[in-house]
Amino acid sequence: MRAALVQEFGPPETLVAGELADPVAGPGEVLVEVAAAGVNFPDILVVAGEYQILPERPFSPGKEIAGTVRAVGSGVAGFAVGDRVLAQIEHGGYAELVTVPEPQIVALPDEVPFVDAAAFGLGAITAHFALVRRAGLRPGETVLVTGAGGGVGSAGVQIAKALGATVVAVAQDEERAALARSQGADSVVLAGPSMRDEVLALTEGHGADVVLELVGGEVFAQSLRCTAWEGRLVVIGFASGDLPTIKAGHVLVKNLAVLGLQVSDYRDREPESVRAAIEHLLQLYVAGRLTVPVARTYPLEQAGAALEAVRSGSVAGKVVLTVDPVAAAAG
What we know:
The chain is an alpha/beta fold. It has 2 domains: 2-108 and 293-330, Quinone Oxidoreductase, Chain A, domain 1 (Alpha-Beta Complex); 122-264, Alpha-Beta Complex (Quinone Oxidoreductase, Chain A, domain 1), CATH 3.90.180. It has helices at 41-48, 114-134, 151-162, 174-182, 195-202, 217-225, 248-253, 264-269, 271-286, 303-312, 325-330, and strands at 2-5, 16-19, 29-39, 64-72, 84-88, 97-101, 105-107, 142-145, 166-171, 187-190, 208-213, 227-235, 257-260, 294-299, 318-322. Helix 10 (303-312) links the parallel strand 14 and strand 15. Helix 2 packs across helix 9 (271-286). It starts with a strand and ends with a helix. GO terms for molecular function: oxidoreductase activity; zinc ion binding. InterPro entries: ADH-like_C, ADH-like_N, ER, GroES-like_sf, NAD(P)-bd_dom_sf, Quin_OxRdtase/zeta-crystal_CS, Zn-ADH-like_protein. Residues 10-321 form the Enoyl reductase (ER) domain. This is NADPH:quinone reductase-like Zn-dependent oxidoreductase.
């Protein structure tokens, strides 16, 4: 089968197009023919050899896929050949075929195209767990979403609105600000030294009850300072590359909760929780309350260029690989 391969760890351009042996579905596994695969920031870390879980080389990266069931292993009862599915996996999505344990597979409604399914998976699941599981968002609260032009940030804006929150988005530039407004953000501020003051002004001094923080560095510092009393700040990532330190005095005097989120832990520890979250997200999509801003698609052979587009921040929205262009276009 065709695949984008990591033979040596390095920058995105070190990915090479190659061949791997076709996988076979073992007991409890589903063999999926991949139509589309989402491209995410953690994939860059995997290719660079900087992620916490690294398989033996050569291997194919890719943590979210959408496609069609090609075969099922013994003991699989919930899926059959030809079913449309999506899945969250540790690696292997940048390939024509991948085996997935049955608990990590979710049935895909006909109304959801493969490209959209691959695009909203990891980002939307991360935002959902951040808002619902970690922060315990309540209707009527104010949510601050940093990095609002990316996949997680975009999903965070929409899901928070769908759950009854007032949303303030933090964008890198005017293009991403426009995207956040189009997805329902009540207010948008640009990242910068005045961010904290602007958020406090927009919330009449109250601050944000919940913060989804994806950027790190100075944006994290500003976010902590404009979190409301007894607010919850969820640390999701460090897109800036600058890992922040926490000033414990802010946490103490405002009774803040600073929470971490590594969503793949839930995939491995509580697959039923991930399945429930995905099914809720699919309901929101079908109802028209969640959209997926797919900024650009690339063929499998250009996986390195797709990763570089994400790494450079040159696209506002989600990047997707069309592993099977015909199936992706049709479905």
